[in-house]
Amino acid sequence: MIYLHKRTIWSLIAVALLALAVSAFPISAQTGPSPGAMPANDAFGTTGEGADMSQDEMMDAVQSVKDPLFGIFEQSGDQVTGEYVSFSAEQQSGMLSDYSLMKDGQAVPVFSEVRVMDFQPTEMSVEGPLFNATDGEFTMFVHDNPYGTMHVVGNGTVNIMTDPSLTAVEMQPSNPNASAWMLTSGNVTGVLVVLNGEVQSSLGGESGGGGIMEQITNWFQGLFGGGSEEEGSDQAGSINVTLPAEGSMMFRALPVNDAFPKADELRLAQHLANWTVEGEMAVMTVDSTTMWYATEGAS
Question: Would strands 205-207 and 167-170 be described as parallel, antiparallel, or unpaired?
């Protein structure tokens, strides 16, 4: 078995600052600000001898790898379960519920519900590590990667209910078209970013008054024991996001799997909140089959 992981796996094209942040990977980054940039499409593909593998065959192949860069989704009715992410997806409305990260086979809750108003997906599918629900104008993607990436694009209104255990700190991005929150509990921490959208929120926690780097630094100090820990409100918070056609929303968490170092996420959180990230790409080779996924960017 050929398994290129922490030493040589990354093959990142110039759009790749939002790479899976393992510090040992060689990373090619575009760091200049691009306030108009917006992820436009996500994709998955395979090449090599196993290019025509079924979902079950891909799952068997990836399960033989310790700490893979991404898992393969399994869908049973409305339930979608992966190596790193699990949730329920309602076929008629596309609503996601019980959105969780997976740690040692146990679900760590993040969002109780992600609902899109008047959304009736004409297509809902899983392909490799990628879940996709779309009606042609609005699309929801979920990636089965260690960061539990959720990516929403297009014209629509999204209501997000956070898990009651989460506390939110509003960030202050330098990009005037972006809104961002750090969501954290004792078990999970992540960043939710909205670009070119109108946002109304009711979240437990506090609004950050300092610069973005000060807030991110304080957040990481609290996460790693250097600051005070804030308790949640024991009530689900809500975020209502209205996106135009050029709007986008992304959630990305720190990995709950200890095999993936978290230090580089400090920089990634900053770039996420300022939307200077244009995409990510991961490439993994198992036996004679190469699998890849991408969150693509458009200027």
Answer: parallel
Confidence category of residue 8, pLDDT binned at 50, 70, 90: very low
Q: Given CA atoms 150, 157, 175, 224 in this order, what sign does their dihedral have? A: negative
Residue 173 CA to residue 177 CA, distance in Å, equals: 9
- Give tens-digit pLDDT for 18-45: 333 322 222 222 223 333 333 357 889 8
pLDDT over threshold 80, residue 83:
yes
Strands annotated E in 185-299 = 189-195, 198-202, 205-207, 238-243, 248-253, 280-286, 289-298
3-state secondary structure of 117: coil
Query: pTM for this one?
Result: 0.76
Three-state SS string over 224-248 comes to: CCCCCCCCCCCCCCEEEEEECCCCE
Domain segments of the chain as ranges: 38-298
* Residue pointed to by tokens 């909205």: 194
Task: Give Cβ neighbours of residue 138 (< 8 Å, ≥ 6 apart).
Answer: 116, 119, 152, 153, 154, 155, 156, 243
